[in-house]
Amino acid sequence: MFGRILNKNQKSTTIFENGNSTKLNFKSKYDIGDIINSSDELLSKCTNHAPLKKLQETFEYYNKKIEFVEKIKEFFKKRGYREVITKKLKKEIIKEPNISYIKTPYGYLASSPEIEIKKLLCLGFDKLFELCYAYRDDFEDNLHKKEFLILEWYRVLATPYDINEEFVELIKYLNGKDTIQYKDYNVNLNKIEYKSYRELFETHASLDIEDFDIEKAKNTYNIDGTNDKNEILDAIFSLKIQRHLGVNHPTVVYDFPKERAALSKIENGYAKRYELYIATMELSNCYLEETDPRDIKNRFKEIDSEFVKALEFGMPPTSGIAVGVDRLFMLLNNLNSIDEPKW
Predict the structure, then answer these.
(1) How does pLDDT run across 166-224, given as a tens digit for each residue?
(2) C-beta neighbour count of 174 within 10 angstroms
């Protein structure tokens, strides 16, 4: 037995061992914070005592997160998914305009495992998932970090509705019950509300996304610095719409403008993209995946040539989803931020 000294008196010493406090029937000759064994032998000297103040709390945070990750993997393996590990340093990427990539002297850090998993789907795998770190040069705040945990899974012949229902089942599995209490929100997971992007603008902003006056919209919502239609819609979405999403039930927003398609299919002029919100927070992004290499080559100036070759070999109809694991952990543990405890 060994542990870190938490306190001691004339008759005993209390040590912190694997998340538990244990009392030893002797007074240690070493100091608070030092690591000793049950024979009072010094294993490590503590020279930074600041973490002692939140030792139990910090241990519990990481213990919960480790168990959280294990439980996610357990969920998918029970459902017949295979876990994969894909490369994170890439010489070629598909450069999406809304993503800020991190470039190193040796290549790009992967902003998502999406492309590499899809290459595997082209080989004949049908149900794959990966939980890993991803990298984006985003502004850092309570919901964004440059390095973050992402979960992605893909299922051949599934629809986005299948995948979003599976995501809610995952949330129930992790949560242990059918309701989420987060801040002032009480969210029932037994119903999913589907709202089109266009419908939300009509309801909450009295705006037709297909026909509106850009200057009037900018003046109404005090938007400066852009005349790009979709950037203006993004700003209005944040100001007027997002606070209404996922308040009582999970809300899935679908049928985005085609300019927001990324790697999703475009049908009837809309991107087949589905974002799920709980307690006003975006948690995931699901696609009916585009499988036609010609469309991919036409959409992007910079492409991953190996991905295009894989699509030319053939990818079956597939739906997939990307989930922000740090946000989901924050939500289910009623935390204020995705930041981890500081040393």
Answers:
(1) 999 999 999 999 999 999 999 999 999 999 999 999 999 999 999 999 999 999 999 99
(2) 17
